Amino acid sequence: MGEGNGRGFAGMPPEKQRLIASMGGRRAHELGVAHTFTTDEARKAGRKGGKTSRRKSITTQNISLELNNSLTEP
What we know:
74 residues; mainly alpha; 2 domains; 2 helices; 0% strand; flat
């Protein structure tokens, strides 16, 4: 994705995608329509992200252990 192949936004080089996204974010703040997280919202989002990250990490570790066990067992 973003390799310059294909069409539209996803087909653009990553640098150009970042430039366009940045311009949109700035404009939204200028117009007063950009979302601004409250301290509580940010805290909840951080907690939710941490839980997801931890769950993915545990799942990956379990898969690795199962794979290693299956490779070492005769």
